[in-house]
Structures are given as C-alpha cells and as structure tokens.
Amino acid sequence: MLEDATPEEVIERDYHLQRLVYALACFRAGAEEVEVVYQFLERPDPAVTTSFVRSELPGLEAELSEAIARIQEGVFKPTPSEFNLLRLSGSRRRLRGGRGCGQPEIRPRSHVG
After folding, report:
1. Of the candidates 108, 107, 111, which has an alpha carbon nearest to the alpha carbon of residue 32?
2. CA distances from residue 3 to 36, 40, 42, 72, 105 in whole angstroms, order as listed
3. Where exactly are the structural domains of the chain?
4. pTM of the predicted structure, to 2 decimals
5. E-assigned strands of the chain?
6. Residue 69 predicted with pLDDT over 70
7. 4 or 104, which is more confident
8. 29: three-class secondary structure by DSSP
9. Which CB contacts under 8 angstroms, 24+ apart, belong to 12-21?
C-alpha cells in the first residue's frame, strides 16, 4: 500500500476526506478537539496524527460540501484495488460487532491518554 510513498503522503492522498468526516463526526458528538490517528502495518512508526479544533469546523464543513458537490457532478472516480475489496470485507465485520481490520481509532482529544 505504501510502496515508495510516506505514510503522510498516503493519508493526504487517499484518506483526506475520510479524516475530515471523522473529525466532523466527533465535533457533532460534542468534542472540542479531535485527533485522528492512522498507523500502517508496513511502517508502524511513526503514526500519522492530525489534530483539529472546533474553530476549524466551518472550514471543514465547507470542504466536505465541496467534495459532495464534486461527487454529485460525477468528478469522483474511485480507484479499484485489492485494498478496497479488503476494506469492504472489514466493514462487514465491523457491522457485525467488531471494529474491523485497519479501521482507525478516533477519540475526542480530551479522552486521549
């Protein structure tokens, strides 16, 4: 998955929108700060951490709205890959009660210890 890219590059390229949605969900749940952490099995150290504060909420919402508009216009083109298929099966496992394979842990920052 990482190939020649750094974990930071992969997160920015492939998980930017997912990270944004996770942050928005935590803010909607009442968090004042959110930290989203990704960790790759290929290179577990360091974990890729992004922090958000509530004052960023309007910008995050606008960014999500822009992404939704692009998808509605047909601009969004998912890239088929073996990883996407694995993620799908991981999502099914998560729906049956587990967290699923490769799912990031998301906690309001006040609970990070």
Report:
1. 108
2. 23, 12, 9, 31, 23
3. 7-76+103-111
4. 0.64
5. 33-38, 48-53, 105-108
6. yes
7. 4
8. coil
9. 17/64, 17/67, 19/50, 20/60, 20/63, 20/64, 20/67, 21/64
**What are 17's two structure tokens?**
């929108």
Both tokens assigned to 92: 């099914």
CB atoms within 10 A of CB 87: 15
Q: Is the pLDDT of residue 43 over 90?
A: no
Residue 31, pLDDT score = 92
> Can you list the pairs that 83-90 forms with residues at least 24 positions away whose Cβ atoms lie under 8 Å?
83/1
pLDDT(55) > 50 = yes
Q: Which of 29, 49, 22, 40 is nearest to 112 (CA)?
A: 49
Residue 87 has pLDDT above 50, yes or no: no
User: Pairing between strand 105-108 and 33-38?
Assistant: antiparallel
